[in-house]
UniProtKB/TrEMBL annotation, chains A, B:
PROSITE patterns noted in UniProt: HTH_MERR_2 (PS50937)
Keywords: DNA-binding
InterPro entries: DNA-bd_dom_put_sf, MerR-type_HTH_dom, MerR_fam
This protein's name: MerR family transcriptional regulator
Domain HTH merR-type: residue ranges: 12-80
Top-level taxonomic group: Bacteria
Amino acid sequence: MTTTDGDRASVSIQDMSKISGLSEATLRYYEKIGLIGPVPRDESSGHRRYGGHAVVMIEALGCLRATGMSVQDMRDYLRFLDGREDNAALMRELFERNVSRIQEEIERMHVRRRYLALKAELWAARERGDADGESRIVPEIAAAREGLR
Amino acid sequence: MTTTDGDRASVSIQDMSKISGLSEATLRYYEKIGLIGPVPRDESSGHRRYGGHAVVMIEALGCLRATGMSVQDMRDYLRFLDGREDNAALMRELFERNVSRIQEEIERMHVRRRYLALKAELWAARERGDADGESRIVPEIAAAREGLR
DNA sequence: TTGCCCACCTGAAGCGCTTGAGGTCAAGCG
DNA sequence: CGCTTGACCTCAAGCGCTTCAGGTGGGCAA
């Protein structure tokens, strides 16, 4: 998993991917856009070797990304972490904003599920030739559509 | 909103956008990728004019898109609608698959919300210099992280 | 030694849109 | 009548990745 290289542990991109949950392609992409600073390379092969500090940081990024946080917010997160000043309030706000975002998404998801479930029911009614059921569902779909926005 | 053109109502792209909830850019994009077949144009200006049939169809597409349905599924939906055969079962399956997709998304959202809410609490504790609170939250975050995947 | 496979590399294209730049057409106004 | 305004047009680039094509280095078996 890790190889010893002098006295520093170094991690391959494959292992970094397993540890963080970010794909290898995403790890390269994040480096390219400067979200993670240049990763040292193995002299002879040119392969990336992630050092201890980077491993911890990227692991955290993996969690944030897994919540759907934007790249910009991840940038801010890293900036707040690095800064010498006390950024606790900014951090709290960053996470609170993201909680609200998720909350809204959840609510929209419920509306969507209802609409799709009704559509499934509609076609199930048609499948069994149930014209009555069909005409009961149609107005419900119309109502559900309103909330879809 | 609509103009009369012979005996057929025709709708501008702006109005089509308002009706369907799809942006003008998306309407052009859907046409480009062949999801909606070529839209007739106004002779002199070259502007798109959506006819009655297209309006109804695109309105429906707008709802499906609003639920997060994939372009491929929308293609299938249109194909099933058009077909002469009885596609009720295929339709039902298509919608049921999408209900499941949303269901899974909702569940993942709950995990994400919990993780982010804990992170917000952590920084709130740090903000008020509450080391006790902080050490209570840290293990909860570790636990919540497990579910994130 | 040769050959092979694996992990890794880079660069480009694709996805589903959105955003922006730059240009045309028709109508209304001074 | 020219001028502005607005709605529309096309083409190109950007976003956050993913996927693919084509190539290199290193280790191991035959």
